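Ticket #4471: structure export looks truncated?
Reporter: QA, pipeline team
Priority: medium

Steps to reproduce: submit the single chain below to the structure queue and open the exported record.
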Amino acid sequence: IIHFYFPVILKKTKYIQNKKLINLKNKSEIRIAFIMLLESNWKYDSVYKVFENQKGFLPIVIICPFVTYGENKMREELLKAEKFCRQKGYNFFSTWDNENRIWKDFKKILSPDILFFSSPHNHSKKEYNINNFLDTLTCYVPYSIRTDHLTQLQFNGDFHQLIWINFYETAIHKKIAEKFADNRGTNVEVVGYPTLDVLRKSRKKNLGKRKIIIWAPHWTIPKSELNRSCFLEYYDYFLNLANNFQNELEIILRPHPLLKLTLYELDGWGKERTDKYFETWKTTSNLSINEGDYIDLFINSDLIVHDSVSFLSEYLVTGNPAIYTKREVDLDPPFNEFGEICLNAHYVCRNQQQLNAKLFDVLFKGSDPKKQMREKIVQKYLIINKDLSSNNILKTILNKLAS
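Actual output as written to the record:
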């Protein structure tokens, strides 16, 4: 959108949204759609289900192409998303028409009344982005709990202004929007985070003898804007750890969806070395990779080691200890206020020696002095209105329809 005209477009959008809301109040069945770009970034399971069980709503998942990283990645993700939707039993619609080899106009075919986006960035074809839905009641739940410093990107894009309702994670995130967003967060509702609904309701199934460690390396290897990833410091550490403790430990790699593509382009790595490395994780008896839904992974684990952004807070809900890896010299940017609170509840390690000592302390000696701190953060910040996030979202929309 040309920024000279943006205030006019924004004013017109809000006017249309208000008219749409009035028209919906008398509608007996409201079609509510959820865009899915990547299965690994899908956060709407509990929200979909709460609307599925609510009279007067017809939920549907719309599978749209993730075009940013090329044709092969796009095709791979479309197939993964379709398989996932079938497994979950969702009512879904794929925008790709394989028979006629065309992309379908889901707005024209389905006419959704309320549309949930899964990303504020234009990762799909332009007809599936926010600018094509300024005459629709649009909503957004962030695809990760935002803990880093990128306030303009995450709170003040055109997308965040144009959306009907931004459903935000905590009161701190609303405060950031009030400070940095041009609209001062007037379209923000604090509801908690839907993924945590599923985590809170899940129960541990792992009864094996081995302790389960998740290693979740970020993709931002030095030279990127964020500069957080410690992958290069630890890629062989976990292979050696698994080899030395075959009977005691199971280690599961949970790579960021962009890590492999980053390594393909990285000097000294490339496709052949990267594929060989990932193959080692798939073929070693006490190693494995998780790239899809991570609810069971979190619930059945004993500990996480990571340098992620969203997992910094999400994993706290499991009650398990968490270790955050940082490089010996700080290159990474600061966290936001909520990120700092969550980082405080982690054990921070800056090298392999520190990580080794902390792993053995926590896993085998049972030393976990930060346990209560993690529990307090969950209770104070992540549970809103003593209810599930999905229920808070449903109530907000029902209230808007009733007012």
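Status: closed, not a bug. The export was complete when the record was re-opened. Leaving a note from the reviewer for reference: Residues 19 and 185 are 21 Å apart (CA to CA).
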